[in-house]
Amino acid sequence: MNRKRIIVGVTGASGAPLALSVLRALRAQGVEIHLVLSEGFKRMLREESDIRPEKLAALADAVYMEDDLGARISSGSFVTDGMVVVPCSMKTLSAIANAYDENLIVRAADVCLKEGRRVVLVPRETPLSRAHLRNMLRTRRCRSGASRSASFEKNRREPRPPPVCFYFRRSTKDRTAQIVIPSAKGMASKNAVLAGALQPTQRSSA
Predict the structure, then answer these.
(1) How does strand 62-65 pair with strand 32-37?
(2) DSSP per-residue letters across the chain
(3) Contact, 48 vs 16, CB < 8 A?
């Protein structure tokens, strides 16, 4: 059985534990992970988390700089099973919605879309402005321009904001991430990769 191959983009939005949980889940499934860490993400880590970039990089099979637009994942000839951007900043959401390929995360997402591969976005922002909502709607409505076949029509950009949960009497960031991450498992309906690993943890009894 061939290994699944998924690109993971991590931007400067708040929510480093979400990215770490996704990477661990994919690694547990034996997925070949191609990771892009933005400079904004590295700056954010210094301000809100004790997670080091090396910890995420150690879970990936290949790691790229965000300004490396010549990387293999920037070409459609490098076949992947899709991409997750987690967390997804509003800047990155806007760039993907408008195909503004200024860095490797946006370019890789654009390539996945034009090749009919699925892209799951996990935006992190509150409150949301009208511009943010317009970009979410645009990403939801966009279709791949490469084909109008039924299979390509399904491969749209999918914004999936992480929900807030109150399942735990004593919440921690790690536990919250375990509930939040299944929001991105919509990719599993096409790739059957995330279904086994991205499961909600057991709810506390009432």
Answers:
(1) parallel
(2) -PPPEEEEEE-SSS-HHHHHHHHHHHHHTT-EEEEEE-HHHHHHHHHH----HHHHHTT-SEEEETT-TTSGGGSTTS--S-EEEEEE-HHHHHHHHTT---SHHHHHHHHHHHTT--EEEEE--SSPPHHHHHHHHHHHH---SS--SHHHHT--EEE-PPPP----SS--HHHHHHHHGGGGGGGHHHH-SSTTT--PPPPPP-
(3) yes
The token duo for 21 is 């949980």
Question: How far apart are the C-alpha atoms of 189 and 192, rounded to whole Å?
Answer: 6
Highest-confidence segment of 1-5, 110-114, 199-203: 110-114
Which has the closest alpha carbon to 31: 200, 158, 196, 201? 196
pLDDT tens sequence across 112-135: 988 888 888 888 777 778 888 888
Q: What is the pLDDT of residues 97-109, one digit of tens each?
A: 888 999 999 999 9
State the amino acid at position 59 in one-letter form.
Answer: L
Q: What is the pTM of this model?
A: 0.74
Burial of 142 (0-12, 13-18, 19+ CB in 10 A): middle
Residue with the two structure tokens 């992480």? 162
